[in-house]
Amino acid sequence: MRSMNTVGAGQNGETRPGPSPTTEDNGPESLRKQAQELIDEILADTSPEHLPARNRLLDCISNHPGKPEAALLEHLMNRPATSGPSTKQPEN
Predict the structure, then answer these.
(1) What residue spans define the domains of the chain?
(2) What's the CA gap between 53 and 56, in Å, rounded?
């Protein structure tokens, strides 16, 4: 089990628990590994409706060889707006 530390104050000054930093969780290699895991998961999706997103991600990967964190960042920054439900309230 991981030990916990505090990561900041809540509304009333209480501290919130957070994961303790470990050497395996820090640094660019950890970020690179996490980005690669996300990319692998996205590319493993075989649904036809996600093909355009997978192709855009593949383009980003080719733009940043050996740097999955940069490829994922580019992919996320350049994704098209979704047409999901809006959180805006209708104007009266």
Answers:
(1) 27-78
(2) 5
